[in-house]
Amino acid sequence: MIDLRSDTVTKPTPAMRRAMAVAEVGDDVYGEDPTVNRLQDRAAEVFGKEAAIFVPTGSMGNQIAVKLHTKPGDEVIVEERGHIFNWEMGTPAIVSGVMIRTVRAANPTGMLTWPEIEGALHINQAYYACPTGLICLENTHNFGGGSVMSAAETDDICRHAHALGLPVHMDGARIFNSAGAQDETVENLSKACDSVQFCLSKGLGAPVGSMLVGSKEFIAEARVWRKRFGGGMRQAGILAAAGLIALEESPKRLHEDHANARRLAEGVAEIRGMSIDPESIRTNIVIFDVSGTGKSSADICASLKADDIHAIPFGPAIRMVTHCDVSREDIEATLVALSGIVRNG
Ligand code: TLP
To answer: Is this model's pTM higher than 0.90 or not?
Structure first.
C-alpha cells in the first residue's frame, strides 16, 4: 500500500515503539507524568518560548489558542484556504463565539502579507463593527501546497499586529517542514508569534499529539481549557515518549520527504492534462490540477486505489503528501500508475 492521503498516516518507528514500551508515566492531569513534562520542557526550549502543553490534536491546540486570545463577538483573520477556517468544523463559532474573517492571499502560496491583512481589520472602528481579536497564520500552508512563510515575513506581520494590540497565533502543524525547507530554526520562524501549535503526528511521524507553545501564563490557562475540551489525558507519557523521538530525530530526515515531493511534482508535470509547477514544491505536499485529463480527480483517485495507491481528491485537484513511510520507489510507482490511468483513459 502506498498511502499519500496525508502525513498523518505514518506508523510509529521501532525506536518510538521501544520508547513507548518503557516510558515512565504518571497522571498528567496532576502534572505528574515525567515524560509529558520532559516533552513540554523540550518543546518550549526548541521554540525559545516559556512553556508548552501536550494536546491530543492540532485542532485542539489551535482552538485553545483561538479561545484564549479572543472574546465572544471578535473576528479572527484566517487565510481563505486555512485549516482553522475550513477543517475545524466551525469550532471557533461553537466554542469561542467568534467569527472567522477570511482573507484571500493574492499569492497562490496562500501566504498573507500585512497590507492584505490590514485591509480586513476592524480596529478602533465604530462600536457597531465587529472587532478583530486575533490573526492566525499557517506555516506551512497546507492547501497553499505546503508553501512556506519566512521569518522576515512573519516578523513583519507580527510587528504591525502588535503595534495595534493584536495577538498572532501560528498554526505550525508542519512548521518543522517549513524550517527544513528554508534552513531556518522553528524558533526564528515563530519567535514573534504569541502562540504556536505544531503537530508531532504529521511530518514528524509520531502516532498522536500536538504541542501548543507560548508564555507561561498563556500555557497555564491552556491547561484549564485543554481539560474543558476533554483533553486532560492521564498516563500520556506513553504517547509523549514517541513525541520526544519525533521532536529530536524526525526533523533531520524531512529533506527526504521534500525531495520525494519535488520528484513527484516533476513526474506529474510531464503527464498529459495534469498541471503543477514543480518549482513551487518546497515541502511535502503536492496538489495538482487534473482537469486537463478529461477525468475527474475522484475517478483518478478511484483508479489509483485499485493499485493500492491512496490520495485525496479536492475539487479539480488531487493532493498527495509524502512522509517517512513513503519511499522514492513508491513515488516512481505512483507516477507509473498515474500515467497509465491517463494513457488508458
Ligand atoms: N490536516 C489534515 C486534514 O485535517 C486536512 C491533513 O491531512 O492535512 N493545521 C493544519 C495546517 C493541518 O493540516 C491539520 C490537519 C491540523 C491543523 C489539525 O490537526 P489534527 O488532525 O491533529 O487535529
So the answer is: yes
